[in-house]
Amino acid sequence: MSNHTVEDFAIIRQVNVMRIKESKEQGQKVVGIYCTYCPQELILAAGAIPVGLCGTSEAPIALAEETLPRNLCPLIKSSYGFAAGDTCPFFHFSDLVIGETTCDGKKKMFELMQEIKPVYVMQLPHVHQNENSFNLWVEELRSLRTWLEKNLDTTITDEGLWKAIDEINQETAAAKAICDINQMNPPPISGLDLLTITWSRSFNSNKAEVIEMLKGVREEYINNTVTDNIGRPRVLLTGCPVGLGSEKVVRLIEEAGGSMVAMENCSGYKTLELQTERNQDDPIVALARKYLQIPCSCMTPNPYRMELLERMIEDFRVDAVIDLTWQACHTYNIEAHDVGRLVKSKNIPFLHLESDYSNSDLESLKVRIEALLEMVEK
Amino acid sequence: MISIGLDIGSVAAKGIMLDSSRQYSVMIPTGWSPRDAGRQLINRLLDSSGYNEVEVDSITVTGYGRIAIKQAARSVTEIRCHARGVAEICPGVSTIIDIGGQDSKVIHIDESGRVLDFAMNDKCAAGTGKFLQVMANALEIDVSELGEAEDLNTKVSINSMCTVFAESEIVGLFARGTPKGGIIAGLHQSVGKRVGSMAKRLGVKEQVAFTGGVAQNQGIRRALEQELGCRIIVPEVCQFTGALGAALIGRE
Q1: Which ipTM score applies to this complex?
Q2: Partners of A322 in the beta sheet?
Q3: CATH classification for the domain delimited by A1-378, as one of 3.40.50.300, 3.30.470.20, 3.40.50.2300, 3.40.50.11900
Q4: Per residue in B180-199, pLDDT tens?
Q5: pLDDT band with cut points at 50, 70 and 90 for residue A321
Q6: Which of A207, A237, A248, A341 has its Cβ near the most Cβ atoms within 10 Å?
Q7: If you measure CA to CA, which chain A residue comes closest to B109?
Q8: Cα separation of A71 and A150, whole Å?
Q9: Which residues does chain B have within 8 Å of residue A364's beta carbon, measured at their own beta carbons?
Q10: Residue B123: closest CA among chain A residues belongs to which residue?
Q11: How far is CA A206 from the centre of its chain?
């Protein structure tokens, strides 16, 4: 196994922009995606390159606000601003974009994005455990398959899908394995490194390589003696998606003397337990089953998130939980009440933060985070 | 053991010195330099106590200005300091409501002054001393006189939570001839509702103590009592609980 370090993940985006450009010149198609609900397997099976699109930086928000309301989640504004200003290279190279109706803000934003690129908006049902929802979701995946086949002028075979399913299952398992080593005390991976690794992986379309990198970096951390994170309060971060560019809370936790040991959010642990089962006849049904389990707050009710959090609190020996809601994300904001109740029932200090991508509230976030860590120390 | 606690707030800087038997306190306006304010507090505490700086065993600093003097002293958040300070002077208190110059907070504590939970207001000035300061300016009255000047009989309701909008709202009320006392009573109710709802969100466990500069305003205290439906204790040294907590934490 080759050695890999977090730096290899930090440069994934740079390296992959060039690769994607070259692949496009050789006629390969690129499909941009925004959300973990999007089944990448369909894109891989179509022989196209799936790539995560940017939406975690404050930079394009001003441009987005020329069109979108100010009082909207920064992730939606950032995503749209990157697209409208053509400042995300991955969006630039995307032939097609897949969106989904996770929340009201996103689904209406995608209507506007359709003026820039062809966007397929998947109708995601918001009730997990319901047969009608499941059937709807299966049909949505079938429609997406047809749409991709038509627009990419190819055929997606079941065989190709099963192969892609194996790849994504392996990648997910490898990502989980790296996250899980932070169950150790002290945690080998700093919060920022953890974020860099788990978030950046979505920008590498070469799945075999990502799997290799994830395994390699895990070895690297396991073999190195940890000297930094000893005795720091172990913090679990949950809530809205966080990526590089919107990592201010992760930084503040670590600057205040805490250690972010795990993240229950989209780029983190939220999806990592989920594997597509191979015991189905129809790969689309198998995929639908996996993806509909993702415990996003857009689902009602959303019990699996609470189960997952409860388990993570135990497994990662968590001392404090921070729930981060991006401004105007109603579903995560309301669900914070349930999360708080769960965490407090375990006598673990809990902090709910509501913020955006700007730095205007750094000081007030800092005092809250420091006070939370003080509650652990005593 | 000589311990100094400094609470450098956005408006006032407070200092407490504890030796084995006595307590010295000083308060000055923070001004534009939290670092200078901290230095001045230390000098004034040394002057009034007669101690030499080398005799001081511990300096603990809190408040928004704590970052400016971090090198010279240990830094602790105001949340923990208020909790510790209030537990010392008001045993039996479970909930602290603190309204300072630029933020308001609600803190749950246990009998030893340990923080159990807390909530703070958001970025804006609604429900803070700053809100009252801006309104006092618009009403051409000193902020310290607001409490005395309210008139509940002519109370009007101020609907805007935003400081800027509330200011235009009271200018409008003034133009219509609404008496000052009624407007002030409305402002107090507005702060009481804002901070009261934050407290209810966290949960209000009696007894409740009210601290911070704004606690001197009896109109706000009354509005909060009405909002929460319980009696609220205002410690005589309501502005010093943070500094006292810092000095106590330093000593421990």
Answers
A1: 0.91
A2: A237, A351
A3: 3.40.50.11900
A4: 999 999 999 999 999 999 99
A5: very high
A6: A237
A7: A375
A8: 37
A9: 103, 120, 122-123
A10: A361
A11: 18
Beta strands, E only, A26-103: 30-33, 49-52, 96-100
pLDDT tens by residue, A98-157: 999 999 999 999 999 999 999 999 999 999 889 999 999 999 999 999 999 999 999 999
Residue A230 has a pLDDT of 84
Domain ranges of chain B: 3-80+241-251, 92-234
Under an 8 A CB cutoff, do A374 and B79 touch?
yes
Where does B92-234 sit in CATH, by number?
Answer: 3.30.420.40
Q: Between A and B, how many residue pairs show a Cβ–Cβ distance under 8 A?
A: 33
- Nearest Cβ partner for A363 among B64, B76, B122: B64
| B3-80+241-251: CATH topology | Nucleotidyltransferase; domain 5 (3.30.420)
Tell me the two tokens of residue B177.
């001839």
Contact A374 B103 (CB under 8 A): no
Contact A367 B80 (CB under 8 A): no
How much is the pLDDT for B70? 67
What pairs with residue B210 in β-bridges? B97
Which of B103, B115, B123 comes nearest A375 by C-beta?
Answer: B115
CB-based contact A246:A74 (threshold 8 Å) = yes
- Say if CB B95 and CB B199 are below 8 A apart: yes
Q: Kindly report the nearest CA distance between residue A375 and chain B, in angstroms.
A: 6
Closest Cβ–Cβ partner in A368, A374, A378 for B120:
A368
What global pTM score does this model have?
A: 0.94
* Segments making up each domain of chain A, as ranges: 1-378
Chain A 310-369, residues with CB within 8 Å of chain B CB atoms: 344, 349-350, 354, 360-361, 363-364, 367-368
- Contact at CB, B123 and A361, closer than 8 angstroms: yes
- Residue A1, pLDDT above cutoff 60: no
Inter-chain residue contact B77 with A370, CB threshold 8 Å:
yes
What SS3 class is residue A55?
A: coil
Written as one letter, the residue type at A366 is K
Chain A residues with CB inside 8 Å of B114's CB? 375, 378
Chain B residues bordering chain A (beta-carbon distance below 8 Å): 64, 76-80, 103, 114-118, 120, 122-123
- Identify the pLDDT of residue A205: 84
